[in-house]
């Protein structure tokens, strides 16, 4: 069973504390994405898992073994780096075979594994080339092949697609996910790209300043963000945050904002008078002449499939995703509505979900 478990993991570099109280378990065959902005500590956590950084506090478990002091070579993991880390003077075949040769595996077995990996990764025709004769996507596949042939219990990926252009990135993320569906190797994947996280992960761990802010499935994280931070970070399009105050006697939970009174989901547990922040995704609001939110149009930005309407309201900029065929006069008033179940409500002070 290739499970990975972090038990109260902490990390300091000298007197600087980078990771605090990280505790969660990754089940066998799971694909977990560590998601967060630059500097939040996700690469450090991955490198600790690989054994490339020491563990300052807590227990790091792979399977049922504590591996804090186990050499990287003996952890049965393989890591794919952002820069691929290929040997430029070796052909693709030798790059993929290298770790098996170091481990003194019989040549026939090495050949079998390299050819099998090359077939899965569409590299069969490139085995006799040097890395510099390959495209970025092909180099990325060689790096994956090198990890695959070791048949590790756990794959670690450190932003493996960030050097590729947008189209190739989208293609490679489906390839990596398909590869996982096929091999089912437990995977930990680091990225700051929330679309990669949403499309690839079984489970996303959202990190913030050295801590885990929320762990859940992509749908849980998108539909029930635990904090304003998560709501802002996850979701392909803009989200509007409106400060408000809970009101009594509205027949159910509601909040007054400078833009209008917004009816909330009956499950919201906030008291009248409580200061809140409402999160309204631009994809959840609709143009509706009877809607509670009023704003003035500034710009319509066409996105091909639909369009983003930028407005100015009493709470500042307000963005809505609208049909691209809609026409607006600049500066005209538009009203918007949103279903109560789609309004995310956060405490104004703690910014935690209510
Ligand atoms: P990025 O996406 O930019 O790589 P990240 O979330 O992966 O960011 P880390 O690389 O884990 O972040 O770094 C977390 C923090 O730890 C940063 O503030 C970084 O400056 C610091 N840090 C990382 N490695 C070291 C080191 N060897 N010595 C001191 N500080 C370090």
TrEMBL record:
Entry's InterPro entries?
AAA+_ATPase, ABC_transporter-like_ATP-bd, ABC_transporter-like_CS, ABC_transpr_MalK-like, ABC_transpr_MalK/UgpC-like, Mo/tungstate-bd_C_term_dom, NA-bd_OB-fold, P-loop_NTPase
Q: Which Pfam families match?
A: ABC_tran (PF00005), TOBE_2 (PF08402)
Q: Which Gene3D superfamilies match?
A: 2.40.50.100, Nucleic acid-binding proteins, P-loop containing nucleotide triphosphate hydrolases
Superkingdom, taxonomy of origin:
Bacteria
Please give the NCBIfam families that the UniProt record associates with this protein: PRK11650.1
- Which family would the database say this protein is a member of? Belongs to the ABC transporter superfamily.
Return the protein name: Sn-glycerol-3-phosphate ABC transporter ATP-binding protein UgpC
Gene responsible for this protein? ugpC
